[in-house]
Amino acid sequence: MKRQQFAILIIIGFHFVSCTKERNNPIEATLVEGCKTFEQLQPNLNSSGIDFECHGNAFLDLDQRNDSNPNGTWGFFGGTVNLHYQDNPFVDQTNASSKVLAVVEDSSNMPWSGFFFDLEAPVQFQGDLTAIALEVFSIVPGQSVLLKLENSNNPSQFKELVQVTTSENQWERLTYHFSVADSNQFDRLVLIMNSTFQNTEQMTYYLDSITLTEPKEVPVATPSFTNLVWSDEFDYQGRPDETKWHHQTFAPNNGSWFNGELQHYVNSEENTYVSDGTLKVKAIKESYTTQSSTKDYTSARLNSKFSMTYGKIEVRAKLPSGAGTWPAIWTLGANIDEPGNFYGDSQGSVGWPLCGEIDIMEQNGWDKTQVYGHFHWGNTATAAYENYGKIATVANTSTEFHVYSLVWTETELQIFIDDALNVVLDNTALNPYDNPHYLLLNIAVGGNLGGTVPANFSQEVMEVDYVRFYQ
């Protein structure tokens, strides 16, 4: 798609009276267009938005973070990027601000060319403020704008999301959904103004008004999926029905599972059985060796021998109460290349996260009132990892059964707890939720979300009353 080039302001050399990096440092010079003075300070999303109105990060060369200046407050990558404040060249109803940030990229810049700046304090997501909104001048529909939050002390700790513009030659407000769980982790803001294309000419992009906001979650009417196409009511005794369930036991990470988990998954009547109308999935403290690897815990990981694209999945379950357990009700694209899963490479082998993952329910090991709904996927245009989720509070997950469900259409994915909406994700061409998914039921022990396992851990059980697929 052809992109329109805009006139680019030539930045005049600056003369500064003072240019230290202290907060609230006035610069008595014409630093930006129309600014007689400029108050230089580190932006802080928690106390106010970032509006580029003659205060904030001045993006001076002396503040640029690089090998010779590791303490700088901003930087760029993937080519040459110049940042400067200027008068708003396209005032409209969406953005009537007097000043905006101009992002000028050289013609040789790579698709992943972008910039970053450090915040005064880590972003605090709390209450209803679990999203970041920003305004961009949309050059063409389909401009892919990537926003990443990063830990400046540990850049490998990050979360990135992409939104795509729908307008042409006008300002557009984009909303990036995070969650309370992301709070206080990230103190750096990274932006790529067009993450899909490599420049063929010098480009200027415009950015304004970065703020914390409420998620843009106004779901369409929930579709009525009433045709039951697959189910297990667990109205029998003994082992799980082998025509419906596959025990996944091969540990794909050199004899271990991922995420620092401490268990082996096994196919044992002690770990999975049906009695009194429910399936029991049990994690047990016991030594077990397989693939030349010994673990101190066993558990079970079930794959449904049924997959579908679009519809509704319902699972009624009671969760374990013990610390250190990480129960999950979730789906994976059946085209995943993970060894040992039921589907093998029969439906493709794209790998994770390109296959897409839908966590209908996950629970951490330290607060059993928290229930996660989460999506993980690989951007279909860039292959970049992206994710989004929310946490709901449910007081009695281990003493009462609750229905955890997914409603999945071509345009939207909705996760519910007992018919109450928990999280919504737009289903776009840039995520891979258009291929068959299968269901997984498991309990991990320890690991990233399981946390510390108490010394007196013996066994913990997740009970499942039914599993139902509708279309």
Tell me about this structure:
- This protein has 471 residues and is an all-beta fold.
- The chain has one helix and 30 strands.
- The protein has one helix spanning 447-450; strands spanning 25-27, 38-40, 55-56, 74-77, 81-87, 99-105, 114-118, 131-138, 144-151, 154-164, 170-177, 188-192, 203-213, 228-232, 245-247, 263-265, 272-275, 278-290, 293-299, 301-308, 311-318, 325-333, 357-362, 370-378, 385-393, 402-408, 412-417, 420-426, 437-445, 459-470.
- β17 (272-275) and β18 (278-290) form a beta hairpin.
- Mean pLDDT is 88; it is low at 1-24.
What is the makeup of the main sheet?
A: 10 strands, mixed
Question: What is the 3D form?
Answer: elongated
User: Roughly how much helix do the residues carry, as a percent range?
Assistant: under 10%
Structural class assignment: mainly beta
Task: Output the number of helix runs.
Answer: 1
Query: Class of the largest domain in CATH?
Result: Mainly Beta
User: Termini, distance in Å?
Assistant: 36 Å
- C-alpha-based Rg, rounded: 25 Å
Residues in β-strands, percent = 35-45%
Strand segment count: 30
* Arithmetic mean of pLDDT: 88
CATH architecture of the largest domain: Sandwich
Taken together, the total number of domains comes to: 2
What is the CATH topology descriptor of the largest domain? Answer: Jelly Rolls
Offer a few descriptive terms.
471 residues, mainly beta, Jelly Rolls, 2 domains, ten-stranded mixed beta sheet, seven-stranded antiparallel beta sheet, 1 helix, 30 strands
